[in-house]
Amino acid sequence: MAISNYIIALVPLCFPGWYLIALLDNPLLVVGRWLHVLPESDETSPQVPPVGSQLLAYVAIALLGFKATDKLIPNIKQYTLRRGICGKDLGKRGTANADKPVPEALGIAPGTVFLVCLIFCIVGYATSHPSKLLDLNSALLSICFMLFLGFTDDVLDWPWRYKLFLPSVASLPLLCCYNGSTSIVVPIPLRQFLVQDHELTMVGSLLSLFAEIDLSANGSLLDLGLFYLVYMGLLAVFCTNAINIYAGINGLEAGQSYVIGCAVLLHNLLEIKANSLSQENHVFSAMIMMSFVGVTLALLGHNWYPANVFVGDTFCYFAGMTFAVVGILGHFSKTLLLFFIPQVTNFLWSVPQLFKIVPCPRHRLPKFNASTGLMEPSTFTCKACDFLWLKQLNRLEPNALEIPNMTVLSCGLGLIIRYYIAEFFFDS
Questions:
Q1: Which one of 3, 179, 184, 336 is most buried, counting C-beta atoms within 10 A?
Q2: Which are the contacts of 356, defined by CB distance < 8 A and separation ≥ 6?
Q3: Which of 263, 283, 270 is nearest to 331 (CA)?
Q4: What tens-digit pLDDT sequence spans the chain (428 residues)?
C-alpha cells in the first residue's frame, strides 16, 4: 500500500483523533504516575485513573496492535497458501493478476491480535472498574466465538442457516450479563398516539399488552422487557452479517469496518468530552474501538486494491460482533444502527432478490472492466418487457437489458442525525 493511500485511509481517523488529542493527559506525567507509587487512598475501592490516562494507555496498545498485525499478515498468508486456503480475485478479470491465487481468511490475524490487545486493556480496566469485569468477559467470549465461527466458515463453507443461528448463540453471553434498562424513549411526535392526558389511547392500550407504558412520563418511556433482549440479539445477528453484505471488492469489508469504527470512536469521544451521564460506558467502548481501528487499519493496508490478501468471513464476523458488543454494552444501539445506514439500505434494496421477486445473480459484486480499469454495477439479464417497474425506478429505458444494484449513504449522515436531527424527536 502506497504512502499516499495510507494518507487517504487516515482521513476518517482525523476527526476522532482531533478530540482524542484534546482529551489525552500529558504523556510524561502519565508515565511518571505509572512508574512511581501514588499515595494510597483511604478508600477501600480501587482508585480510578483519570480518563485522559486511560485513553493514553489504550492508544499505546492500539499502536502496538497495528504494528503487530502489519507484521503478522505476511507470515500468516504463507500458511494459508500452503494449505490451499486461497482463491481468485473476480475483480481482476482481464488483468495479468487474474489467475494469481490470493490468500483467504486473513481476518484471523487482526482478530487474534485484537483479542490480545483487549486482554491487556482488561488488565488495567478491570482493576479500576471491577463492576465491569462481567461485561468484559462476556465481550471477549462473544468476539472469540465469532472469530472461531468465521475461520471455520472460510475453511468449511457453512450453510447460511448456521450463519444466521450461531451469531444468536454468540450473543447470549452479552444478553445474560446485560443489566441496563430495557426501556426505549418514544419519539415526541408518536407519544400522542399512546397517551393523552395521562390516559392510554386505543393504540396505547393495545401496545400495553406487549410492553409497559410509563404513564407518569406521559408516554415518553416504553419498557419492552424481554422484547428488548430479543432486539439486541437480532442486532448482533445483523451486525455480524452486515459487514459481509458489502463483500467481494478489494478493501471494502475492511474499509467499511474501519470507517464505522472511526465513527463509533468519534461518538464515544464526543460523549466523553461532554461528560455525559454514560461516560463510563463510552470509555469502555472507546477502549475496544481503539484496538479494533488499529488492527483493521493494518489489515486494510494489505487488502487495499490490488489486494494481497482476502479478509474472509473470519474478519466480517469478528468485526460485526465487535460492533454489536460496543453497541449493546455501551448502551447506544440506536446510534450504532445509524452508522449501518448503507448496510440497512442495501438489505432493503436486496429484498426483491432475496425473496426471488427478481433474479439474484450468484455474485452481486460489481464487474471489473479491464478496458477502462473501473468497476461497473452488477446486473442481471432480462427481457425488454420484464421488470418495467424496476427499470423506471432506476431511470432506465424500457428496453434496457441490464439493471444495476445500488449502494448509498455514509456514517457522516448517521452522526448528523444523532447530534442535530434527533433533538427534534427526543428530549434533550
A1: 336
A2: none
A3: 283
A4: 667 777 777 888 888 888 888 887 666 676 666 666 444 444 444 566 788 888 888 999 999 999 999 999 999 989 888 888 887 777 766 676 677 888 888 999 999 999 999 999 888 787 777 778 888 888 899 999 999 988 988 888 877 777 777 888 888 888 888 877 788 888 878 888 888 877 888 888 888 888 888 787 777 888 888 888 888 888 888 888 888 877 777 788 888 899 899 989 999 999 998 887 788 889 999 999 999 999 999 999 898 877 889 888 899 999 999 999 999 888 888 888 888 887 887 777 777 776 777 666 655 666 777 777 676 766 666 766 766 666 665 655 555 444 333 333 455 666 666 666 666 555 65
Amino acid letter, residue 159: P
Which cell goes with 252?
A: 471494502
Residue 361 grid cell: 445473480
DSSP string, 113-177: HHHHHHHHHHHHHHHH-GGGHHHHHHHHHHHHHHHHHHHHHHHH---HHHHHHHHHHHTHHHHHT
Whole-model pTM?
0.84
Q: Is 221 helix (H, G, I), strand (E, B) or coil?
A: strand
Q: Rounded CA gap, 368 and 279, in Å?
A: 46
d(CA 88, CA 98): 7
Cβ partners under 8 Å of residue 216, min gap 6: 198
For 196, the enclosing helix (H) or strand (E) is strand 195-196
